[in-house]
Structures are given as structure tokens and as C-alpha cells.
Amino acid sequence: MTSVEFTNQVQKISVSLRPAALTLTRDADDARDLVQETLLKALLNKDKFKAGTNLKAWLYTIMRNTFINNYNKVTKRSTKIDSAEYFQYFNSDETFITYNGGTATFVMADISQAIDGLNEDFRTPFMMYYIGYKYLEIAETLQIPIGTVKNRIHIARKELKKLLQVYSYN
């Protein structure tokens, strides 16, 4: 493929890159910049494109990777802090940390109550698994099939998730 053919094909496909760029950036100006940067990288690296492969997919990959790299640069730049300000506290003898066990006590009480509320058939395999028993060990100890053990642990988790939904981060 000659340089002129490659450039013409890239130019034709560039129109379809704009909606995808807008989806990534959620800003019209940033989307135009992303498409422009993608086309520039594609033209500079045309020797890396293998004729007969999907040019559109290659361009989308360049665009996605460019977006990710730019995003990572922006987030790293905006999260820099003046470490000297924080290191002065590490060397001081004063302790600024206060622990409050009240919240943890309430959470643990709710978890214990939820586990106690489970049916015995589900609670026993769940607690054995929680303690560290393997599925096979639980199956042998309780004399039930391993599939039943897995199913009961799954149901116990689902039930606990429902009972402890108040602590969900979603």
C-alpha cells in the first residue's frame, strides 16, 4: 500500500473516529484533539501497519491507547502532593491517630447476628469455609457431595449480602 493510498483510507475512516472519541472524552473539543492526535500517530507510524489487516480497528486501538495515556498523565499530575509537608509528622513523637472501635463493634454485631440467622444447613459449611477448610474437607466432614457444599456456601453468601446490604458501598 502506498503512502497516498494509506493517507486516503485513514482520511475516510477518520469521520467514524469522531463519535467514539466523543464517547471517550465527553467533550467536543477534547474529542477533536484526540482524533487529531490519533491521525498524527497513525501517519507517523504507517510503517507499523500491516497491509491486509483492519485499518479501522488499528486506528481505534491507537485512539483508545492515546486516550488512556493522556488520562493517566492528567490524573498523575493532579495527584501530586507536597510530601515535605506530610513527612514532618512521621518524625515527630506526637501521635495524631485516634481509634474508635464503636463503629467496628456495631458492624461485627450485625455480621454475627446475620450469620446466626442463617439456616444451619448453610451456616455450617459457610463457617467451615470461612475458618479455612477446603471444599473437599467440608464435604468429607459433613458427608455431603462437594457440589452441595459449594451451593450452600454460595446461598449463604447471597443471603448475608442481602441481610447486610446496609453496609454496601453501591
TrEMBL record:
<feature type="domain" description="RNA polymerase sigma factor 70 region 4 type 2">
    <location>
        <begin position="110"/>
        <end position="160"/>
    </location>
</feature>
<dbReference type="InterPro" id="IPR007627">
    <property type="entry name" value="RNA_pol_sigma70_r2"/>
</dbReference>
<dbReference type="InterPro" id="IPR013324">
    <property type="entry name" value="RNA_pol_sigma_r3/r4-like"/>
</dbReference>
<dbReference type="GO" id="GO:0003677">
    <property type="term" value="F:DNA binding"/>
</dbReference>
<dbReference type="Pfam" id="PF04542">
    <property type="entry name" value="Sigma70_r2"/>
</dbReference>
<dbReference type="InterPro" id="IPR014284">
    <property type="entry name" value="RNA_pol_sigma-70_dom"/>
</dbReference>
<dbReference type="GO" id="GO:0016987">
    <property type="term" value="F:sigma factor activity"/>
</dbReference>
<dbReference type="InterPro" id="IPR013325">
    <property type="entry name" value="RNA_pol_sigma_r2"/>
</dbReference>
<keyword id="KW-0804">Transcription</keyword>
<dbReference type="InterPro" id="IPR039425">
    <property type="entry name" value="RNA_pol_sigma-70-like"/>
</dbReference>
<dbReference type="InterPro" id="IPR036388">
    <property type="entry name" value="WH-like_DNA-bd_sf"/>
</dbReference>
<dbReference type="Pfam" id="PF08281">
    <property type="entry name" value="Sigma70_r4_2"/>
</dbReference>
<comment type="similarity">
    <text>Belongs to the sigma-70 factor family. ECF subfamily.</text>
</comment>
<keyword id="KW-0731">Sigma factor</keyword>
<dbReference type="GO" id="GO:0006352">
    <property type="term" value="P:DNA-templated transcription initiation"/>
</dbReference>
<feature type="domain" description="RNA polymerase sigma-70 region 2">
    <location>
        <begin position="20"/>
        <end position="73"/>
    </location>
</feature>
<protein>
    <submittedName>
        <fullName>RNA polymerase sigma factor</fullName>
    </submittedName>
</protein>
<dbReference type="InterPro" id="IPR013249">
    <property type="entry name" value="RNA_pol_sigma70_r4_t2"/>
</dbReference>
<keyword id="KW-0805">Transcription regulation</keyword>
